[in-house]
Amino acid sequence: xxxxxxxxxxxxxxxxxxxxxxxxxxxxxxxxxxxxxxxxxxxxxxxxxxxxxxxxxxxxxxxxxxxxxxxxxxxxxxxxxxxxxxxxxxxxxxxxxxxxxxxxxxxxxxxxxxxxxxxxxxxxxxxxxxxxxxxxxxxxxxxxxxxxxxxxxxxxxxxxxxxxxxxxxxxxxxxxxxxxxxxxxxxxxxxxxxxxxxxxxxxxxxxxxxxxxxxxxxxxxxxxxxxxxxxxxxxxxxxxxxxxxxxxxxxxxxxx
Length: 256
What we know:
Pfam families: NIDO (PF06119). Residues 1-24 are annotated as: Disordered. Residues 78-238 form the NIDO domain. InterPro entries: Epithelial_Barrier/Signaling, NIDO_dom. It is a single chain. By secondary structure, this protein is mainly beta. It has one domain (14-234). The chain has one helix and 14 strands; from the N terminus they run ββββββαββββββββ. The chain has one helix at 99-112, and strands spanning 16-17, 29-37, 40-48, 52-55, 75-80, 90-96, 122-131, 142-150, 155-163, 194-198, 205-207, 230-234, 248-249, 254-255. Strand 13 and strand 14 (254-255) form a beta hairpin. The longest helix is centred in the middle third of the chain and has 14 residues, at 99-112. Residues 184-191 and 240-256 have low confidence and may be disordered.
């Protein structure tokens, strides 16, 4: 099934949960293993309710600015949009050295990067589970996950997408019932949903194809490793696109 490759998450896995707060964030999380992102090493991160993992400082903004950003704040954005977990859903996160999970991650990354065999020694798993959008009057929810992992030398991010049902909160003129439409439908307006990476230096960034357009709702069918709903990147010096440059599959209009 699409998205079935999400790694285990939830309270039974020892996860912590974010507060139920619109535009909220976790407390500062001190990493037991420093994480290198775009050539800089970080020891603190935040899991932000609006679909962003940021280093060193939180990101509460619900309307994403187009990448690249020169604000000095580096972050991973599995799905930056106007999440409201007060209305529905939970946000889980944990650091782990669980052998079974690390073995699964190691196997997967070695499959995608066969020239560089990888044995994970640590991972950070953040999961947004059926989270609602601001102003929602429906039961729609998005489920997606970001995994940061390393062997202490090489650093990867895995983005998993199980179910994406909405793109836009009501504060960005999205339809309260459908969670679709909104500001991004207007030419020259800022995007209201985005997936990718931003270094904070106005130069280094990556947008997953479909970001800033309505097509992002199909991200569960897209991939750069030929596994629908999964994107994998090496991020210490950002060689992630060396896996396979995503090509458009003309049979179904999806990036694979």
